[in-house]
Specification:
With 182 residues, the protein is of the alpha/beta class. 27% of the residues lie in helices and 43% in strands.
Amino acid sequence: MINKAWLSTFIIALLLPLSASASDSAAVLDAKVNDAIDNFKREVNGADVFLRQAAGYLVFPRVIKVGIGLGVETGEGALRVAGRSAAYYRTTSGSFGLQLGAQAKSIVIAFMTKESLAAFRNSSGWQVGVDGSVALIDIGAGKQINSKNIKDPVVGFIFGSKGLMYNLTLEGTKISRVQKDQ
């Protein structure tokens, strides 16, 4: 039988990294977003052209998920419009089920139409699968985006996954706007 005090301490230790990025200033977060975009372009052929075609794109450079029966996932990022950060957002989600481990990943959500971007920006809180559907594209390192075949108004990419828990889903993810100090 697992000692409850030990389990509580273990969960707290796993959740501590989740709060670390919440203290990032806009400038620090922008630098992390730039690095994530560079990695995305390096890992996926055609990413540069694809991002230029998007009306805007949301970049979460580091999303952390930890779970012991209950899973929690969070990270902060920036919405880029015309190559500049237009606003800052936090992604959060929770899950329940057989899970144990931790994972870090990067996420890019591209709004391919002005209408889908406007709907996102005008929402007070956006939940994937409720407020909008995201077509998740699984592209491994060295693969190429075929933008001619992508017809969805909102497209998501998960890349750079590291850790013991692998989950390619955004369903139920809540995205909320946050204020950042310059």
